[in-house]
Design brief:
Shape: elongated
Structural class: alpha/beta
CATH superfamily of the largest domain: Response regulator
Number of domains: 2
Number of strands: 5
Largest sheet: 5 strands, parallel
Strand content: 5-15%
Order of helices and strands: EHEHEHEHEHHHHH
Distance between the termini: 15 Å
Helix content: 55-70%
Strand order of the largest sheet: 2-1-3-4-5
Number of helices: 9
Length: 208
């Protein structure tokens, strides 16, 4: 098992999806003036065709678009296991659609015309959410990869170490000798390249 890439190593992109070219260009210019990277798409289908899940960022999508609207895009990303944070924008302030989007995890639902500062704040929130999610997934993948180095018996011992059990208590629970437990503990710390039980606990907690 390989460790997940560092989520901070790739520049995030704000993906702008709107069938109105003028809106796309205006939002892209606003994003770039704020020092962020933007890519524009005329449809959700075009975005899905070109997007790579390895690329961090967020999506700004119009609610009403031909072929696939913003809510359908949200559903499709979820179906594919994607977690890109989504901001829905619309000129049609439909409360039911807003509720649907927010319940499905959208960062916000903004009605056009919206304040530029509010929009940029939501974009930064979305990018932070994506970074946090990717960082957590990376930490989980790294923890799983390290714990996979342990034998089944070492996993048992490590689990009891995390519970705070003494060597004697572990020996009694597993029906093995105290010296065997000591050997397992040394092997566990060595294989995981750590020195203390608190380090083991942090690693254990990251693994899903």
């Amino acid at each position: 098992m390989t460790e997940a890439p560092d989520p901070a190593a790739v520049e995030p992109v704000v993906f702008i999806i709107d069938d109105d070219e003028a809106v796309r260009d205006a939002l892209a210019a606003l994003i770039e003036v704020a020092g962020l990277s933007a890519r524009t798409f005329a449809s959700a289908l075009e975005f899905l065709h070109r997007y790579s899940p390895e690329q961090p960022g967020c999506v700004v999508a119009d609610l009403r678009m031909p072929f696939m609207d913003g809510l359908e895009l949200q559903e499709e990303l979820s179906r594919r296991g994607g977690s890109l944070p989504l901001i829905i924008i619309t000129a049609h302030g439909e409360v039911s659609s807003a509720v649907t989007a927010l319940r499905a995890g959208a960062v916000d639902f903004l009605e056009k015309p919206f304040d530029d500062d509010v929009f940029l704040r939501r974009v930064h929130e979305a990018l932070q959410r994506d970074f946090t999610q990717r960082r957590d997934r990376s930490a989980a993948a790294s923890a799983l990869a390290k714990l996979a180095r342990l034998s089944p018996r070492e996993r048992d011992v490590a689990g009891l170490m995390v519970e705070g059990c003494s060597n004697k208590a572990i020996a009694n629970r597993l029906g093995i000798g105290v010296r065997t437990v000591e050997t397992h503990r040394a092997n566990i710390l060595g294989k995981l390249d750590i020195r203390t039980v608190p380090e083991l606990l942090r690693l254990w907690m990251h693994a899903p």
